[in-house]
Design goal:
single chain, alpha/beta, Rossmann fold, GMP Synthetase, Chain A, domain 3, 3 domains, 4-stranded mixed sheet, 39% helix
Length: 528
């Protein structure tokens, strides 16, 4: 059988087998416990195979410069643990910044310079899967694959979550974009892997032609859904649903609550707030409704908006490059309390990027992960704390919690994240060339408005004189659409939501006294 034909034949076979073998609660427990017991062994094997045995690894020049060989790592890991050796590696210059990991900036240490591409960090241990282009943690497209083994490994956490929240037999829907965004298809497949595919999948899109994601993405989604029809766990067909159509979701909630007493809606945090505000306007009590949310911070204001309708909300923390990083706590100490998946991920806390909360440096050591990560700074920050809570994830041995997780490298609204570098280019180059002034006259600020929705305020210096505000917003969205398919999704959702608002106000300086085109929430800079 020719190699190419064999490859295309094997994937459908493996895909159907993947769906026909659901993961039980006991199997999920055994998998996580087994990884915890073999944690150091798995870490060392991953470092050996993916870094030291891979001549093209971008980590090797850093390790050689710092004079770390594999035996040193083995010795230090056995004496001070994974986090201990990672701390020593980081202190000796073995780490990769957000921009370096994306291949946008050369890796520079001690006067030495190494240029790495995004693809250089690909995991050499895996080779097959469905190729897609995703938004990634950076808010910039990441070429990635839908790896069945990776989805199966991540599904173990989903099975535990379903058990802890008592939702295994509860109707569930998704409200996520389709490809090129991978969130919807990934969650559909993982839930199918635990035997509970979503009842419906609302595609966060409109019928506008400019939203067209391309025939390859449409074909890819259709192929995955069609193949699933040959299995015991068929997937829901994506149904276009714009942000303004929350009544469709509310009607589904009302019907399922009347029939089952409970229901689950999984979506971005902002969409959950929109649904709850729609329920309040209708005088509808959402008791019995659980929102599973992610992709943006669950702030206290958003939390209060959701629970104010008597609904419940449960957060998660994922990234395209790593997969499942942390799952919400069953007995949270505060809003947004998460259990780190220490069986597959290690996290160090670096220097304070902005306001006293250190940046995260991630190391992933699961063989099925798409990227090789060793002390990689991904643009997020928060608090790392070891504590006992007694929930199911704690009982499994996951005692490390992440609190107050937020991004300082990208701007987010309505669950759509755009890298600061892309927005800065628009604000510092394109707007001044068309509307006058300089980069000092434009500034984007992420704020939470009185309705608990995250908005992007574009400050334009009044000294520029009259400016067509509608035209400015349109030009920003057009600039995003020109980048690629995933940014067209971002621009469409932001346009639907009216996420960008222009205010005639002089741009403010950062805490360091410098001007910046992108600053964080309520005037607090995200960048360093």
């Amino acid at each position: 059988m020719p190699g190419k034909f064999k490859k295309h034949f094997i994937f459908p076979y493996n895909f159907i087998r993947f769906l026909n073998r659901p993961i039980s609660f006991r199997e999920a427990q055994d998998a996580i416990r087994g990884r915890l017991e073999q944690r150091e062994k798995n870490f060392l094997r991953f470092v050996k195979q993916c870094i030291y045995d891979t001549r093209s690894s971008p980590y090797l020049p850093l390790l050689r410069r710092a004079r770390w060989d594999y035996d040193d790592i083995v010795s230090e890991t056995r004496s001070c643990g994974i986090e201990g050796v990672l701390k020593r590696l980081k202190d000796s210059g073995v780490w990769v910044s957000f921009e370096e990991f994306k291949g946008r900036k050369a890796i520079c240490r001690g006067g030495e310079r190494y240029q790495a591409r995004d693809s250089d960090f690909d995991n050499p241990l895996i080779s097959s899967g469905v190729r897609v282009s995703t938004g990634g943690t950076s808010g910039r497209p990441v070429k990635s694959n839908i790896y069945l083994d990776f989805l199966a490994a991540r599904a173990n956490y989903d099975r535990l979550m379903f058990e802890m929240l008592h939702i295994y037999d509860v109707p569930l829907i998704l409200w996520y974009p389709g490809l090129p965004a991978v969130t919807g298809i990934s969650n559909s497949l993982r839930y199918a892997k635990i035997g509970r595919p979503p009842e419906r999948w609302f595609n966060l899109a409109s019928s506008a032609k400019r939203m067209d994601s391309g025939w390859k993405n449409r074909l890819g989604t259709s192929a995955v859904v069609w193949l699933s029809r040959l299995s015991k766990a068929p997937l829901a067909v994506p149904e276009p649903l714009s942000l303004n159509d929350v009544n469709v979701v509310l009607e589904w909630i009302d019907r399922r609550k009347k029939r089952h007493g409970r229901c689950v809606v999984q979506c971005y945090v902002s969409q959950a707030v929109r649904i709850c505000r729609g329920a309040s306007a209708r005088g509808m009590d959402l008791r019995g409704t659980l929102f599973i949310v992610g992709s943006e911070p669950l702030t206290r204001a958003k939390y209060q908006e959701i629970v104010g309708t008597n609904a419940e909300v449960f957060p998660r923390y994922h990234a395209t490059e790593i997969g499942s990083i942390a799952t919400g706590c069953g007995r949270p100490s505060e809003v947004g309390d998460l259990h780190l998946h220490v069986d597959t991920v290690a996290v160090l806390q670096g220097e304070d990027p902005t306001d006293g909360v250190g940046s995260f440096f991630f190391t992933s050591f699961i063989n099925a992960a798409p990227k090789v990560m060793l002390n990689v700074e991904m643009g997020d920050s928060g608090v790392i704390r070891r504590m006992r809570c007694g929930c199911l994830f704690d009982q499994m041995g996951l005692h490390t919690h992440l609190l107050g997780v937020r991004s300082y490298s990208r701007t987010s609204s309505e669950g759509m994240s755009v890298c600061h570098s892309e927005l800065s280019r628009l604000l510092e180059e394109e707007l001044p060339s068309k509307y006058g002034g300089s980069l000092l006259d434009y500034q984007l600020v992420e704020v939470e408005d009185g309705n608990s929705m995250t908005r992007l305020l574009l400050r334009i210096d009044p000294g520029l004189g009259p400016v067509d505000e509608h035209s400015v917003v349109k030009d920003i969205l057009t600039g995003l659409r020109r980048i690629d398919a995933i940014h067209r999704v971002h621009a469409e959702v932001w346009e639907q939501a009216g996420a960008i608002k222009v205010i005639r106000q002089r741009p403010e300086s950062t805490v360091s006294g410098k001007s910046a085109s992108i600053i964080g929430k309520d005037g607090v800079p995200f960048g360093r």
